[in-house]
């Protein structure tokens, strides 16, 4: 079944690329033929191919839905999707290339969940324990510490520690460079073909970018994993691991998500399950959420490049108010 879904997403990527190149017109207006790598001739309005891949299990944002204007939503890009019914509620600039900051951690998590054993024991390297970039958030792991991969991934997503990201990348991929190749392959398989990732954490690199729509596609894939949903629902996480000498170390990592901390209130009838925050000077303030309404329908909402953290969460609350 997963192989079938992967093939569907690859064909979807081809169709989406044509859609973008032709101005994001609606499906019925598209008639440009193209050939995929298997020699299959497809058209974007092909009655057999296109409906299946555009409507099966993904929401598509045509140009007429990609420039919604709401004076309260001032971030560079924003998106709300009814993920149960695959319907767009709000979209603006979702195909603009932007920096993802720590929303990068989503594709890192997808690689781990797809390729790694969460029961593995990870040894923290010198590189992971010596991130020197100013302002980089760190879990505080030391060289030689050993920790279960599941605990490391949880701390990585809940607290957003960049040292955990390096440790994950080195353990799963061998090197950051090799792991980045795995990230890009996983992104492509999810349909996120307008992204390029060069590190596992999102610390700034000019060649490290994505789009709001690509992040939706990655997140849409992630929320099929119960383990991921369980992790992002933590308001805090306490873990015990061992230092280089074998002695136990216990730390508690608090979430960066204000809705889970109780410092931001979601609209009535909306339950925030979890998500991921991100911020760098060039990416601005970013947030993606997975939520449910009173009818138990699922929603993905996303903001990229808000001016500051307060504005980020107030805009997200305004987006969540659009859910009816």
From TrEMBL:
User: Which SUPFAM superfamilies does this chain map to?
Assistant: beta-lactamase/transpeptidase-like
Q: Where does substrate bind?
A: 276
Looking at the Swiss-Prot or TrEMBL record, what is one Pfam family this protein matches?
Peptidase_S11
| GO molecular function per UniProt | serine-type D-Ala-D-Ala carboxypeptidase activity
Q: Which UniProt keywords apply?
A: Cell shape, Cell wall biogenesis/degradation, Hydrolase, Peptidoglycan synthesis, Signal
Q: Where is the Peptidase S11 D-alanyl-D-alanine carboxypeptidase A N-terminal domain?
A: 68-307
Keyword Signal on this protein?
yes
A Gene Ontology biological process noted in the UniProt record is: peptidoglycan biosynthetic process
Active site, renumbered:
102, 105, 160
Q: What InterPro entries is this protein classified in?
A: Beta-lactam/transpept-like, Peptidase_S11, Peptidase_S11_N
Keyword Hydrolase belongs to the record: yes
What does the similarity note say?
A: Belongs to the peptidase S11 family.
Q: Which PANTHER family match?
A: D-ALANYL-D-ALANINE CARBOXYPEPTIDASE, TRAFFICKING PROTEIN PARTICLE COMPLEX SUBUNIT 12
Q: What is this protein called?
A: Peptidase S11 D-alanyl-D-alanine carboxypeptidase A N-terminal domain-containing protein
Species name for this entry?
Anaerocolumna chitinilytica
């Amino acid at each position: 079944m997963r192989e079938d879904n992967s093939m569907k997403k690859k064909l979807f990527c081809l169709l989406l690329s044509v859609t973008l190149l032709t101005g994001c017109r609606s499906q019925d207006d598209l008639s440009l033929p193209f050939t995929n790598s298997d020699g299959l001739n497809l058209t974007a309005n092909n009655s057999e191919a296109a409906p299946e891949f555009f409507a099966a299990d993904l929401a598509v944002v045509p140009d007429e839905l990609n420039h919604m204007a709401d004076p309260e939503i001032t971030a560079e890009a924003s998106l709300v999707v009814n993920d149960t019914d695959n319907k767009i509620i709000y979209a603006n600039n979702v195909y603009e290339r932007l920096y993802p900051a720590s929303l990068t951690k989503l594709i890192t998590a997808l690689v781990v969940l797809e390729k790694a054993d969460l029961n593995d024991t990870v040894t923290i390297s010198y590189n992971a324990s010596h991130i020197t970039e100013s302002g980089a958030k760190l879990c505080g792991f030391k060289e030689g510490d050993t920790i279960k991969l599941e605990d490391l991934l949880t701390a990585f997503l809940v607290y957003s520690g960049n040292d955990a990201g390096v440790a994950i990348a080195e353990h799963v991929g061998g090197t950051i460079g090799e792991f980045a190749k795995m990230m890009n392959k996983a992104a492509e398989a999810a349909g996120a073909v307008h992204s390029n990732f060069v590190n596992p954490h999102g610390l700034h690199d000019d060649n490290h970018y994505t789009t709001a729509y690509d992040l939706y596609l990655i997140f849409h894939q992630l929320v099929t994993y119960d383990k991921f949903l369980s992790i992002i629902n933590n308001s805090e996480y306490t873990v015990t691991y061992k230092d280089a000498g074998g002695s136990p170390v216990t730390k508690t990592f608090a979430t960066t998500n204000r809705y889970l901390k109780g410092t931001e209130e979601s609209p009535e009838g909306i339950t925030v399950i979890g998500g991921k925050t991100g911020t760098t000077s060039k990416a601005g303030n970013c947030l993606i959420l997975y939520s449910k309404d009173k009818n138990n329908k699922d929603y993905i909402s996303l903001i990229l490049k808000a001016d500051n953290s307060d504005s980020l969460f107030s805009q997200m609350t305004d987006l969540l108010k659009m859910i009816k």
